[in-house]
Each structure stands twice: as structure tokens, then as C-alpha cells.
Design a protein that fits this description.
The chain is of the alpha/beta class. It is built from 13 helices and 16 strands. It binds 6-O-phosphono-beta-D-glucopyranose (BG6).
């Protein structure tokens, strides 16, 4: 059996240090890596094996698996050196048990596979993991797909979306399809609307260069958020495997109601954080243009046109510099048809909610009404909580570790297929075009540390709804402005 080698392009970057190495280390510690595995970091920075190991900073038993090669991955001439180094490390001629990981800036996603092909490194048995965003819009995603298809077979291509590696995201499938009592309610007859939030309390950190070209739509919505929509909305596949699961995902994307002029104007709110207290505004971040109109916040109302979901709005939002970090899905059920207990001093019964907490405080909460103990018939909302902490001996695993291990084992279920990538871009493309053609379309400033533009609340109010915010907003509305 030939030795397993993972070749990481972009090995001197942030993703490698913050996510990939900790994931590899945890797989190694839990004895889930192949025997004698080799990691070859590739990047322009001039490290030696030793300085690379020191930079990564793990103990010797793990570090001795790490190696480094300094080449410029955008140039063809370094690829022969990769091949030589692989032969030397494995002691094999034409080693083929290879996993390439593209943790580089997206501008290299199209170039590297072509160089791999020219150097003959796209051998059968190799796999390639590509980070998101895969493409910049529909056309560029199609072009990238064509490039990949000319170098690899689809089963060798792993387009990663680390949200799918999260235990709590995968559990949506078990929760829906391994329980009998929820699925009969999981449709337009019982669900009023769905809310999906993935917000963070930090800014763009050192990633100004990348983020300026991406924005929240490409960074979070076109991949992570829409993936959560798919898990929430999909039909149960007849069998559970990579093809059937991914077929259902694509069907959801194909059912997204195309964005109309009205949607573009009224059902999309984009924002950008402005300075507040000690927090910088987006335009003050490094490598960000002084007049940048890149969005760091998006809220959208989207619809799914099929028998299950017709007429049920899905409100999705993401933002940087929010008051807290939270990713959750809230299923808002319809109210009771009649308010029997409502009276002068008895409030309306509130509609049931099911909260799927992706992170943090991973768990599931069902909110329901209860008679307040004592005289009369006042009702109040209480909750039944399941928290992953209750499974004391089973820690919630790391998303990257799960996905890398799946790829090593040739299991592509939790990776995005080429048709899903295109279907998702197809849906968002009109919005990207609209912003491009109309740069003056509203972009709302929100003070860093708040819940985003007030207009996003107004969008929900149309449906008599409002966002579920786990902690309070700043109240000073003077700080909100159109940019
Ligand atoms: C990444 C985005 O894909 O996801 C980042 O590029 C974002 O901007 C991150 O911070 C959020 O992931 P998580 O797992 O921390 O919620």
C-alpha cells in the first residue's frame, strides 16, 4: 500500500495554522491518520522542515510527519520539485496516494490543478480538496468546474464547506429523519417561517485583501448559509449515501424561487460595520479601500417553491462585528388557530419554536406554552433543552478533522458536488449582478457590536416577525446611517 501524503498549498497561511494542523493533530492523537502519513506543506515563504515545524508548534512525534517545500504555486516550474520531493519522502516512484489541499487565495484555485496536470501529478488515486468560495459568480464557478473536470474525475474533487463538517449540522438529518414525530409537521401547513443566523463578534481580522473581493455573500451566504437551508428544507433521501444525499441538496437549490426585482430591492439588506467605541470600522481595516462598498452583513428573505415549502419565508442573515458569535436555526411553527386563554390579563399564547443550536451551546431547544402555576389560566413559554454537554464522554468533534478523515476514506457525502455549486451560484447571481450594476444600491452602516442594519428588522416585520437576538442591541439609532 503506498504511503499517504497530504500536500497543503498555502501552508504558510492562516487556515493551515488555525484549522488544518489542529485537525490533523487531533486525527493523529486519536490514531485516525493512516500509518506513516506524510504532510508536505507548500508555499512561497522560505521555511525549512525545521522552521515550518517550529511555526506549527506541535510535539516531535507529530512534527516529524511534517515537511516543507518552498515554491511559488502559481508558476509551473516548481511542480517537478514537488514530484521529486514526494518520491524522496515516500521512497516510491510516482506515488499516487496523494491528497492535495488548496488552502491558498481563491485566485490560485484554477491555476494549481492545471499545473498538477502538466506535471503528471493528477494520478488516479489522488484527491483534491478546494476551499470556498469556489468561484466568484456563476460563470467563474462553471469555468472552474470545467478546469477541474479536465484534470480529475468528479469523485476525486472535494469542494469543502466546513459547516457540513459540524456535528450539529449533520445532526439536522438525524433529528429530522431518524425521528417520527417532527417530519409530519415539517412543512408549510405547520411552519410559519424559518430563521437562520450565522453571526460573529469579530471583524475580518487580517483578511482584508481576501474579504474586499468576497464580502459576506461569497464568504458565508453562497456556501455555509445556503447549505443550512438545504439541510433544513431537503426531502429525505431513499438511502443515505453521497449521491442520494447530494441529489436532495441540489433539488433544494433548484427550487429556490428566483430573486425578483422586488426581492433585490426589498428583501435583501446589506450592511457594513462602522467604528464604535474601541472597535474599528470596516473601512479602517488593513487592505480595505477607504470608500469600500463591500458588505460585512447580509439579511435576506428567500423562498422555496415546492410542495413542502411554498409560501414559507426563510430569513437568513450573517454578519461580522455583531454582539456575539452564534449560528442557529429557528423553526417558527404556526400559532394555534384560536386563542382560548387570551383575556384581559392573560397574554396571547406564543407560537412554538424549535431552536437548532449549531454553535456555541450546541443543542436543541423546543419552546412551548405552559399554564403558569396558580389561579386563572395564564400561559407562558418554557423550553425543553437538549445540550451536547449532556453527552459527557462524546465531545463535539472538529469540523475540519471530520472532513479530512472522510476525504482520506474517499467519502464525498459531506462535500459539495459540481452541480450544487452551480445551482447555488445560479440563485445568487442576479444579486451579484444587481450590486455590480447599481453600486449605489443601499449599503447600511451599523455600529460594530450591534445586530446590523435596522432595515433588516423592518424586512422581518412585514411578516409580523422579528429576529431572535440572544442578547440586546445598542439602542442609539443615530449611529445607523446609509453609506
Ligand atoms: C469561514 C469564513 O468560512 O467561516 C470566515 O471565511 C468565518 O469569515 C468562518 O469567520 C466562520 O466559521 P465558524 O466555524 O467559526 O463559524
Amino acid at each position: 500500500m503506498s504511503k499517504f501524503v497530504m500536500i497543503i498549498f498555502g501552508a504558510s497561511g492562516d487556515l493551515t495554522k488555525r484549522k488544518l494542523m489542529p485537525a490533523l493533530f487531533s486525527l493523529y492523537r486519536e490514531k485516525r491518520m493512516p500509518d506513516d502519513f506524510i504532510v508536505l506543506g507548500v508555499a512561497r515563504s522560505t521555511y525549512t522542515d525545521e522552521t515550518f515545524r517550529t511555526r506549527i508548534g506541535y510535539d516531535d512525534t507529530f512534527s516529524r510527519h511534517l515537511h516543507y517545500l518552498s515554491i511559488d504555486p502559481s508558476k509551473a516550474d516548481g511542480y517537478a520539485q514537488i514530484d521529486q520531493r514526494l518520491e524522496q519522502l515516500t521512497g516510491e516512484t510516482k506515488p499516487a496516494n496523494l491528497l492535495f489541499y488548496l488552502a491558498t487565495p481563491p485566485s490560485l484555485y484554477g491555476i494549481i490543478p492545471q499545473h498538477l496536470k502538466r506535471a503528471g501529478l493528477n494520478r488516479p488515486g489522488t484527491r483534491i480538496i478546494v476551499e470556498k468560495p469556489f468561484g466568484y459568480d456563476l460563470q467563474s464557478a462553471q469555468e472552474l468546474n470545467n478546469i477541474y473536470a479536465s484534470v480529475f474525475e468528479e469523485h476525486q474533487i472535494y469542494r469543502i464547506d466546513h459547516f457540513l463538517g459540524k456535528e450539529t449540522a449533520q445532526n439536522i438529518l438525524a433529528f429530522r429523519f431518524a425521528n417520527g414525530i417532527f417530519e409530519p409537521l415539517w412543512n408549510r401547513n405547520y411552519i410559519d417561517y424559518v430563521e437562520i443566523t450565522a453571526v460573529e463578534n469579530m471583524g475580518i481580522e487580517e483578511r482584508g485583501g481576501y474579504y474586499e473581493g468576497a464580502g459576506a455573500l461569497r464568504d458565508m451566504v453562497q456556501n455555509h448559509l445556503i447549505q443550512l437551508v438545504a439541510l433544513t428544507a431537503m426531502e429525505p433521501p431513499a438511502k443515505f449515501n453521497a449521491e442520494t444525499f447530494r441529489n436532495e441538496v441540489v433539488k433544494v437549490y433548484d427550487s429556490l424561487r428566483p430573486l425578483t426585482e422586488e426581492d433585490l430591492n426589498e428583501h435583501v439588506v446589506r450592511g457594513q460595520y462602522t467604528a464604535s467605541g474601541s472597535r474599528k470600522g470596516y473601512r479602517e481595516e488593513d487592505n480595505v479601500a477607504a470608500e469600500s462598498r463591500t458588505e460585512t452583513y447580509i439579511a435576506m428573505k428567500i423562498g422555496i417553491e415546492n410542495w413542502r415549502w411554498s409560501g414559507v419565508p426563510f430569513y437568513i442573515r450573517t454578519g461580522k462585528q455583531m454582539p456575539t458569535k452564534v449560528t442557529e436555526i429557528v423553526i417558527h411553527f404556526r400559532s394555534t388557530p384560536h386563542q382560548m386563554f387570551h383575556g384581559e390579563d392573560t397574554p396571547y399564547a406564543r407560537a412554538n419554536q424549535l431552536v437548532i443550536r449549531i454553535q456555541p451551546h450546541e443543542g436543541i431547544v423546543l419552546k412551548f406554552e405552559l399554564k403558569e402555576p396558580g389561579g386563572g389560566f395564564k400561559v407562558k413559554q418554557v423550553s425543553m433543552d437538549f445540550s451536547y454537554d449532556q453527552l459527557r464522554d462524546v465531545p463535539v468533534g472538529d469540523a475540519y478533522a471530520r472532513l479530512i478523515e472522510d476525504c482520506i476514506q474517499n467519502d464525498a457525502t459531506l462535500f459539495t458536488r459540481s452541480d450544487a455549486i452551480e445551482a447555488s451560484w445560479r440563485f445568487f447571481d442576479p444579486l451579484l449582478k444587481y450590486w455590480k450594476e447599481k453600486p449605489e444600491a443601499p449599503l447600511y452602516g451599523y455600529p460594530a457590536g450591534t445586530w446590523g442594519p435596522l432595515e433588516s428588522e423592518a424586512m422581518m416585520n412585514e411578516h409580523n416577525a422579528s429576529w431572535t437576538n440572544p442578547c440586546k442591541n445598542l439602542t442609539n439609532t443615530d449611529q445607523y446611517c446609509e453609506l
